[in-house]
Specification:
Distance between the termini: 22 Å
Structural class: alpha+beta
Largest sheet: 8 strands, antiparallel
Number of helices: 10
Strand order of the largest sheet: 1-2-3-4-8-7-5-6
Helix content: 55-70%
Shape: elongated
Number of strands: 8
Radius of gyration: 26 Å
């Protein structure tokens, strides 16, 4: 249970944030909100172009079939291909624009929110999440590439903090896979911790990129096969339903077979590195609620018990409750502490249909910042 003191602090935080939102934050996000509205208009333009393309494809097919009888010609095939794949090109272009928009808006919103915390002082040169830090944290192994898009960095009550959107990937025979794709916060202290400590989430995280891609794009590929089967079956004067069914059946067998073939080849030829994610097999019991979410690994049991106090465990549990279905891993090493949240939505902006000035969404983001600073303060006091 939460004690009365944290509840009092949280009520004070909420009251102060409401005042900050009314007097500064809402007005400060006016420019960003105008950018969002323009982007929504751009989105509807892409939707209109996609619908127009689909209608043009249907009309083109009907005219070619029943008025000009040119189905099967090379010219017909080329135009049909262009019209069919144009929506996917538009979608790819929109995704690129959306990625840039989201990155810029995230930085702008967070830069406004962070001014609410008076004890935070932005100092970009103090602390950054480096590849060596992620390797030394022992949270991941077999790493090939690390990419960080920093949200903010600086000091909070004489302790360093850096928060970024991070992606930790490895390379396999069947393409890149990510170990981690989410939000990472690192605290820096003026003391050295005696031994490494790993706090590993018990929640499931699917990090197989290839399987995700197949799951997302297989229906799209199958629909394209069916569409072209129907179109070209008319060209050879065959029954479209029979050809579509045959194409669908072959695809359902072919796509998983290709994936599992690459998967097995990857298992056979992959060179595993010796680095392990578990520092030790010693398991620690902290509190019942903490134990539901995490396993703890360390060389030094006494040091871990001294570090993982009930107060610290409670603060980690509260952060977990903000995103109850998302794995959260932690690592204490050298003079640093890393908390890795397996979701970019931890500090992500709202969907672009929701106003950026929405109080509820801004409060949720500010609450997550407050929880991180509260955790930092607790660790620095140990």
């Amino acid at each position: 249970m939460l004690t009365q003191e944290p509840n009092k602090k949280l009520r004070f935080f909420k009251r102060e944030f409401q005042q900050f939102y009314k007097t500064e934050l809402r007005r400060g996000l006016t420019e960003a909100e105008n950018v969002r509205k323009k982007f929504v208009k751009t989105f509807w333009v892409y939707i209109a172009l996609t619908i127009a393309d689909i209608i043009a494809l249907i009309l083109y097919f009907l005219l070619a079939r029943y008025f000009y009888n040119i189905i099967g010609d090379n010219c017909f095939t080329a135009i049909a291909l262009v019209l069919t794949f144009a929506p996917f090109a538009l979608f790819a272009l929109f995704l690129k624009m959306y990625s840039k928009y989201k990155c810029n808006i995230n930085i702008l919103v967070i830069s406004k929110l962070i001014t609410f915390f008076k004890n935070f002082k932005p100092e970009n040169y103090r602390l950054h999440i480096l590849p060596t830090d992620i390797l030394n944290s022992w949270l991941f192994h077999d790493i090939e590439n690390i990419k960080n898009d920093e949200y903010f960095s600086g000091t909070y009550k004489n302790s360093d903090i850096c928060v970024s959107s991070s992606k930790v990937t490895k390379s396999g025979i069947y393409g890149a896979e990510w170990w981690f794709n989410g939000t990472m916060a690192m605290f820096g202290f003026n003391k050295i911790f005696p031994t490494p400590l790993i706090i590993r989430s018990k929640k499931f995280y699917w990090n197989n990129t290839m399987a995700k891609i197949l799951l997302i794009y297989t229906p799209v590929i199958l629909s394209l096969i069916i569409i072209f089967s129907i179109i070209f079956s008319y060209a050879v004067r065959s029954q479209p339903i029979e050809i579509a069914a045959l194409a669908l059946g072959c695809s359902l067998m072919f796509v998983p077979a290709i994936y599992y073939a690459f998967y097995l080849l990857g298992k056979i030829f992959k060179k595993y590195r010796t680095r392990t994610t578990h520092v030790s097999s010693k398991y620690l019991e902290i509190t019942p609620e903490f134990n539901k979410n995490w396993n703890v690994y360390t060389y030094d049991k006494k040091s871990a018990i001294d570090f993982l106090t009930p107060q610290l465990a409670e603060k980690l549990v509260k952060i977990q409750k903000l995103m109850p279905f998302t794995p959260i891993d932690c690592s204490r090493f050298e003079d640093k502490f890393i908390i890795a949240v397996y979701s970019r939505r931890f500090f992500g902006t709202t969907p672009f249909f929701i106003p950026l000035t929405s109080y509820r969404n801004l409060y949720n983001q500010a609450l997550r910042m407050y929880m991180l600073f509260d955790l930092l303060e607790e660790i620095s006091a140990l």
